[in-house]
Specification:
This protein has 210 residues and is α+β, with helices and mostly antiparallel strands. The protein has helices at residues 3-8, 18-36, 97-106, 139-155, 185-192, 198-203; strands spanning 110-118, 126-133, 165-171, 177-184, 206-209.
């Protein structure tokens, strides 16, 4: 399956138009699972005595605002109900770095830098932190581009279930923060599966304006 097939699922539209694009991405995932022999939502366990995979990459220095996220204007909503599962594996985030950068370029997403916080290795959450310059500075455009970023980052994991949270900072050309957004992967998965709609997805975003 070519990379262009994945890109077909990533054209930017309003949230209610993403179901078709995500269906294409799910098709790409199904083909990938067939090639690797993995099952849907299969957890890849690392032996306890193995050294953790170190995937540390960073371009520039992230602003301090990313390190102290404060939710804006949206009350905490319960996460989507999930069936009982085994404990979250203590593994680092695993991404196809080159593929992700290529997708950002193809979709004309102006990413300034990103970095990984491998919190699971210390009983916390695995978080992807990313700064980008949005096409426009309206809340609607930033939310749409955030959903696209979320879809791309989630799709290029080399192992299943290595990310818990994706947090982004929308900034202007001078590096001044404009808005931060955060979402849990569990809510994104529920959105893909049709358990919540676009409005419910947005209600579960954690926002902060600057």
């Amino acid at each position: 399956m070519s990379l262009s097939f994945l890109l077909l699922g990533c054209t930017l539209h309003a949230p209610e138009d993403y179901y078709y694009e995500f269906a294409l991405m799910e098709g790409w995932g199904k083909t990938n699972r067939q090639k690797t022999g993995r099952q849907l939502h299969e957890v890849i366990r690392h032996p306890e005595n193995s050294e953790p995979l170190v995937i540390a990459f960073e371009v520039g220095k992230p602003p301090a605002a990313l390190l102290g996220f404060i939710p804006y204007d949206v009350p905490d909503l319960p996460e989507v109900d999930q069936p009982p599962t085994i404990a979250t594996p203590k593994v680092p985030i695993s991404l196809r770095q080159e593929v992700l950068q290529q997708l950002f370029n193809e979709k004309q997403i102006q990413v300034v830098h990103w970095r990984l916080r491998n919190g699971r290795l210390r009983d916390d959450q695995n978080v992807v932190l990313l700064n980008f310059i949005p096409r426009a500075f309206s809340e609607r455009v930033i939310k749409e581009e955030f959903l696209m970023i979320f879809a791309l980052v989630h799709a290029v994991q080399t192992e299943a279930d290595t990310i818990d949270v994706i947090r982004v900072m929308a900034e202007d050309e001078n590096g001044t923060p404009q808005m931060s957004l955060e979402a849990q992967v569990v809510n994104y998965t529920a959105y893909l599966q049709g358990k919540i709609d676009g409005q419910q997805w947005e209600q579960r975003l954690r926002l902060q304006r600057f």
